[in-house]
Amino acid sequence: MNNKSRFEYILIELEKIIRENNIKPGDRLPSERYLKDKLNVSRQSVREALRALEMLGVVHVRIGEGTYLADFKDHRLFDIIGQFLIKTDEQREELKEINRVFEDYVKREYHGDKNVQEQDNKILRAIYTIIKKYTD
Predict the structure, then answer these.
(1) What does the alpha-carbon distance between residue 54 and residue 101 come to, in Å, rounded to a whole number?
(2) Which of 32, 41, 84, 89 could pair with 45 in a Cys bridge, judged by C-beta atoms 3.0 to 4.6 Å apart?
(3) What residues contact 128, with CB distance under 8 A and at least 6 apart?
C-alpha cells in the first residue's frame, strides 16, 4: 500500500470509528496504539494522519492527554481551500449565489422571522459565514 492510499485508508477508517462510537466534538479519540492495532498500520502512519487532521482543525492534540475531536466551527479546512481555490470574480459570484440560496431557505423555513445567523443549524451558519468572508 502506498503512502497516499494508506493515509486515505486511515482517514476513512477513523471517520467510521468516530461515527460508530458516536464521538462528539470535545470527546477523546482512541489512542494511537489502539488505532495502529485496529487499522493494522504503523504508529507513524497514524501520527501523520492525525497531524494532518490537526492542521485542518478537525482534531486537536493535548500533549500527554490525547487527541480530541474539534468542533466544526474550529475547522480551518474552508479557509485553507478558499485561499487556494477562490481566485476569480466568477467563483465569488457562484459563492454569493449559494449564500442567497441559504438566505431564501431560512426565510421560507422561519417565515421571515430569522436570518441565517439566527437560525439553529450550526453547520449552515458556519458555511454561510465562511462564504460571506470570501465574497464581501
Answers:
(1) 31
(2) 41
(3) 99, 102, 116, 117
The residues near 15 (Cβ < 8 Å, ≥ 6 apart) are none
Residue numbers in the chain where pLDDT is lower than 70: 1-4, 72-78
pLDDT in tens, 80-101: 777 777 778 888 888 888 888 8
CA distances from 9 to 1, 13, 89, 127 (A): 10, 6, 36, 27
Measure Cα distances from 41 to 10, 18, 34, 48, 106 in Å. Answer: 8, 18, 11, 11, 45
In sequence order, what are the beta bridge partners of 60? 68
Q: Are 69 and 25 in contact (CB under 8 A)?
A: yes
